[in-house]
Design brief:
- The protein is α/β, with parallel strands linked by helices.
- It has three domains: about 100 residues, Fumarate Reductase Iron-sulfur Protein, Chain B, domain 2, CATH 1.10.1060.10; about 160 residues, FAD/NAD(P)-binding domain (3-Layer(bba) Sandwich), CATH 3.50.50; about 120 residues, FAD/NAD(P)-binding domain.
- About 40% of the residues lie in helices and about 15% in strands.
- A five-stranded parallel beta sheet has the order 3-2-1-4-15, sandwiched between helices. Strands 7-6-5-12 form a four-stranded parallel beta sheet, covered by helices on one side. Strands 8, 9, 10 and 11 form a four-stranded antiparallel beta sheet that branches.
- A hairpin with a 2-residue loop joins strand 13 and strand 14.
- Helix 4 packs antiparallel against helix 5.
- It is globular.
- The two termini are about 40 Å apart.
- It binds flavin-adenine dinucleotide (FAD).
């Protein structure tokens, strides 16, 4: 797997130093021994991939780190990246019974990371069935978490899986999107290297865009899994948005994660207030911007980002401007930008109305739109009897099967953009459903 384009710059790695340092081996054992091993394991229920949390923690307490990692991988092949990227405050750790006793929840994410880091550092492999035990040949379009989980599950059970990806590196947003201080691109690739060793085939630089290409895949493979995620950032539709100095949040994050942007300076204005906007604002600060504003049309209480992400963003020094909306971007002499904004007022029905005489211009160096991703219309337009609703692929919530029984789909292109762990759960469920469907055909 190529890592040629990843940042080697130690200053950059230092700037994006990890938010949460790993546990020492001693601390991991002490923390593991705090776990009450609840029989009903609310933590496991809260995890979309249903990792056996008490099971893997018990193995850490017993010093069996490899066994612990295998327990995690049984449920979630991307257990390493999920340990770093998952919003555990609202998932497993949020469900920990320790809250009931007014005590700190078990540090499940750090324990999971401890087991997975040990596994990857040792270069262990995942136990898989002998090749071709299962007469099933599947192609996964997109190499993000959803497809990786689908392909790995099929390989683990003895089928064949090929992943086609339009970019030069796999991982989707795990590699190109999740903030570097949570999950380094190199760590995402290390995990995918393990999946490659399982026997999953990868084809990079292949973009499936037309009906003809899908027909060709239908001829070659039994089933097609669509794990294409979402598309580019939505446009602002205001004058001047294509000016030099305007870079959308996804491009900014991918550029710094692949070492193409090393620093920013001056004043940066991020437009939007979801988790992506927060990540972009934090990145701008860490890349050196002196002042970073985040402009949101609504009130603080309406903020779509997670509370803990908002708190972290304030600690990074980002300043929030509420009830403002951009109306134009004007390039100024000397390469700076003038961002015209107005105050808006929320009406009873929730709509926003610009208020008279509230225009305010911010002089800045970079504007970063972050107002949500649009769906990948190109591929989805090539419907092949796949139902598309509001730009998202309609798929069975349990199996991921679409209106065309040979097509399954999962992850962001179905749920509209959630978490890595949701995409992993979808991919795995679809793999199991494909195996069941194939067995029914050959029975
Ligand atoms: C900036 C940002 C930060 C995030 N941070 C977190 C976080 O901290 N924690 C968390 O849990 N979640 C986070 N998420 C959400 C998480 O990354 C996604 O939910 C998850 O990656 C979805 O996985 P996926 O496989 O559905 O799609 P993606 O990860 O988007 O992968 C889709 C892949 O398909 C490829 N592709 C698309 N179309 C084609 C085509 N036609 N042919 C070939 N290949 C194609 C794409 O290039 C891409 O590699 C974040 C999202 C963003 C945008």
């Amino acid at each position: 797997m190529s890592t040629a384009t990843l940042p080697q710059d130690s200053e950059l790695l230092e700037r994006f130093s990890e938010l949460k340092p790993p546990l020492t081996p001693q601390a991991a054992v002490i923390e593991a021994n705090r776990c009450l091993n609840c029989f009903d394991a609310p933590c496991t229920l809260a995890c979309p991939t249903h990792i056996d949390v008490p099971g893997f923690i018990k193995r850490i307490a017993a010093g069996n780190l490899r066994g612990s990692a295998n327990r995690i991988l049984d449920a979630n092949i991307l257990g390493g990246s999920c340990a770093r990227a998952c919003p555990v405050e609202v998932l497993c750790e949020g469900a920990c019974v320790m809250h009931r006793y007014n005590r700190q929840p078990i540090q499940i994410a750090l324990l999971q990371r401890h087991a997975m880091d040990n596994f990857h550092a040792a270069g262990y492999d995942v136990p898989t069935a002998p090749p071709n035990t299962l007469d099933l040949n599947v192609v996964c379009i997109g190499a993000g978490p959803a497809s990786l989980a689908c392909a790995a599950e099929l390989k683990r059970r003895g089928g064949r899986a090929t992943v086609v990806e339009r970019r030069e590196m796999p991982g989707g947003l795990n590699t190109y999107g999740v903030a570097e201080y949570k999950l380094r691109a190199a760590e995402s690739l290390r995990e995918i290297e393990m999946i490659r060793r399982m026997g999953v085939e990868f084809r990079f630089g292949v973009s499936i865009e037309s009906s003809a290409e899908l027909v060709k895949l239908e001829e070659e493979f039994d089933y097609i899994f669509l794990g294409v995620g979402l598309g580019a950032m939505q446009r602002l539709n205001i004058p001047g948005e294509d000016s030099e100095g305007v870079i959308n949040a996804l491009e900014l994050i991918a550029a710094y994660k692949t070492g193409q942007i090393h620093q920013m300076s001056g004043t940066v204005v991020v437009l939007g207030a979801g988790n992506t906007a927060i990540d972009a604002a934090n990145a701008a600060r860490r890349l050196g911007a002196e002042t970073v504003y985040l402009i949101y049309r609504r009130e603080e209480r309406d903020l779509p980002a997670f509370d803990f992400e908002y708190e972290h963003c304030k600690q990074e020094g980002v300043q929030f401007l509420w009830r403002r909306q951009p109306v134009a971007i004007r390039p100024e002499q000397h390469g700076r930008l003038l961002l015209d904004t107005v105050q808006v007022q929320q009406q009873q029905d929730g709509s926003l109305v610009p208020m008279a005489d509230t225009q305010h211009t911010i002089v800045c160096d970079t504007v970063v739109p972050a107002i949500g991703q649009s769906p990948f219309t190109q591929l989805i337009q090539e419907k092949r009897r796949i139902v598309v609703k509001d730009g998202l692929i309609a798929a069975d919530p349990i199996t991921g099967q679409t209106g065309n029984p040979r097509y399954f789909a999962g992850g962001d292109c179905v749920n509209g953009g959630r978490e890595v762990v949701d995409a992993v759960a979808d991919g795995k469920r679809s793999a199991l459903a494909m195996i069941k469907a194939a067995e029914a055909i050959y029975a």
